[in-house]
Amino acid sequence: MTDAPAPAHEPSGPPPVRRLDARSLRALAHPLRMRVLELLTLDGPDTATGLCRRLGENTGTVSWHLRHLADHGFIEEETGRGTRRERWWRAVAVSRRLDTTEFRDDPDSRGALSVYVHELVQQHFHQVAGYLAEDWDTAWRDAGTVTQWHDLRLTSDQLASLNAELADVVDRHRAASGAGRDAESEESYEGRDGDAAARPVIIQLQSFPRKERGER
Nearest CA to 7 among 202, 197, 143, 159? Predict the structure, then answer.
C-alpha cells in the first residue's frame, strides 16, 4: 500500500520511500494527525495557526499533533521562516509505503493499522468527492476521470506487475513535468507546450482481488 507522495522533491526521479514500521504506524494512525499531514503534503508549509483555521481545531491541539509528527519524522520545521512563537512546518518529501502483512500477527498494531487504512480510504474518497463537486472548465472536466475496470482475471504476480507498470507511467510523467510546482508557490506554471497552465494533479490507484459469489 502506497500513501500519497509528499510535496516537491528533486526532479531526478520519484521521492525516496519510507516504509512504515509498527512504531511509525502507531505514531501516524490518528484522524487529526493524518489530516494535518495531508494538508501539509498537498498544499505546502503552514503554521499551527493556519492549520487551526482550516481544521476548526484549537491551537494547542494542533500544535501538539505537529510536534508528534515532527518527533517521528513525518514533518519538519521550515528553517529561516517564521518566528519563535509562530513556526512553519512542512511535510518530509517521501513516499510512504505500508506492507499490511507485516502487522497481521501483531495485536499491538492491529488497532493502529485499522485506523490508518480507514482514514487513508476516507481521504481518497473526500478528494474525489471534492473534485466532482467543484466547478471546472470543460478541458479539465474532460481530462479528469473516475474509472473502474472489473473484467480482469489475474494472478497475484500479474496484479503486482500491473501496479508496477502503472507506477512507472506516473514516474515518467512526474519526470516530464519537472517534478511539479514548488510547494511554497501558489502560482501554477505553464505546461511544456505553453498551451495551458499546469495544475497539481492527484492520481489514485486502488487495485485488489474480489471474492467471487461462492467464496463470500
Answer: 202
Q: Looking up cell 503534503, which residue turns up?
A: 41
Alpha-carbon span 52 to 60, nearest angstrom: 9
> Contact at 8 Å (CB) between 36 and 62?
yes
* Per-residue pLDDT reduced to its tens digit, 15-69: 789 999 999 999 999 999 999 999 999 999 999 999 999 999 999 999 999 999 9
pTM above 0.85, yes or no: no
* CA count, 13 A, side-chain hemisphere, 78: 18
Place of cell 486502488: 206
Residues 6 or more apart whose CB falls under 8 angstroms from that of 4 comprise 38, 41, 42, 96, 202
Separation between Cα atoms, residue 95 and residue 7, nearest integer Å? 10
